[in-house]
Amino acid sequence: MATKTFEDSMTELENVVSKLEAGDVTLDDSLKLFEQGIKLAKSCQKKLDEAEKKVKILTADADGGMIEEDFGGAE
Question: Does the pLDDT of residue 52 top 90, yes or no?
Fold first, then answer.
């Protein structure tokens, strides 16, 4: 089975949330949807964390050259 893309996971998570918000499901189904939503949210967060580690910010140094620093270092 192929790994879902971030976008696929987000779309599925949005569908889960919509179903839960509609309130047209049984308690058991709501719990299953909630568990599915938690798994999807964790998967999306993991993918975002992995992407953040790869992102680098290029900034100019005093001499006009470019330096590379970690994404988190700009905060």
Answer: no
Tell me the DSSP string of the chain. -PPPPHHHHHHHHHHHHHHHHHT-S-HHHHHHHHHHHHHHHHHHHHHHHHHHHH-EEEEE-TTS-EEEEEGGGG-
**Segments forming the whole domain that contains residue 44:** 6-74
Q: Please report whether residue 1 resides in a domain.
A: no
pLDDT in the model for residue 24: 93
Task: Read off φ and ψ for residue 61, nearest 5 degrees.
Answer: -90, 180
Q: Is residue 25 part of a domain?
A: yes
Give the integer Cα–Cα distance in Å for 27 and 63. 63
